[in-house]
Structures are given as C-alpha cells and as structure tokens.
C-alpha cells in the first residue's frame, strides 16, 4: 500500500502513542495526521486524515470504535473510527470547543467534559 505525502507545514513528530489493540499502535502527530502501525513489524497500516488541528484520541476497551478530535477551538469536530478497518464511521461537529471526550463505561455512548464536569452527551453508539 502506497501513501501520499501529507502536505502540511506541521512536523510529523509524534505527539502521542496509544495501544489500539494487541496488533496495532496508533500515534498522533504534530501534522494533524493519525497513523496506525502494526505492532510486530512496525509497518504503517493507515493514515487517518481530516483534522485541521492537533489531534487527541479517546479509546475504550469495550467498543469496536475509537474517537479522534481536534483539540483547538477552531475545529470542534469529532471523528468516530472503526478499530478493525480504520475507516471513518461518523463525523460530529459541535457548536463549541471540544475540551475532553470520554467513553461511557459500557461503551454505548461518549460525552464531553469541561474542567472534569460532564458537559454534553454527544452520541449513542450502536455496537
């Protein structure tokens, strides 16, 4: 699989690294691209694009999805991704800045918080 170079003035330096499952690692980078790698070989499997600002991840061990969101006020956008295919399942655009996103304990919905206080239930997720 060939990937085009992402045209960005941002650095591709890694910002965060997360274990997606037993076989995949996900990184967020300063160029606003999320990259998925094979744990054993280190091979780049997917480039997840679409965010305009620095990207933050929200993971849950009980749902087949993960969330990414632009962490600056000018984006206000959340993407829902399938863990297996790494395809974008849904996009949520909010009226205000996304501060932090959390999954419910059972993985059936996610919500935002501001300063640690529940703010908005964003969406029900069918698993």
From TrEMBL:
Taxonomy, superkingdom: Eukaryota
InterPro entries referenced in this protein's UniProt entry, alphabetically: Quinoprotein_ADH-like_sf, WD40/YVTN_repeat-like_dom_sf
Protein name listed in UniProt: Uncharacterized protein
């Amino acid at each position: 699989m060939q990937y085009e170079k992402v045209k960005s003035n941002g650095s591709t330096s890694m910002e965060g690294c997360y274990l997606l499952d037993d076989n995949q690692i996900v990184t967020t980078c300063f160029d606003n691209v999320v990259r998925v790698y094979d744990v054993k070989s280190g091979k780049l499997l997917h480039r997840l694009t679409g965010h305009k600002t620095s990207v933050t991840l929200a993971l849950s061990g009980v749902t087949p999805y993960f969330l990414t969101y632009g962490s600056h006020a000018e984006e206000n956008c959340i993407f829902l991704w399938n863990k297996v295919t790494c395809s974008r399942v849904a996009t949520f655009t909010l009226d205000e800045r996304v501060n932090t996103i959390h999954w419910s304990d059972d993985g059936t919905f996610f919500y935002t918080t501001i300063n640690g206080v529940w703010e908005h239930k964003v969406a029900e997720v069918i698993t």
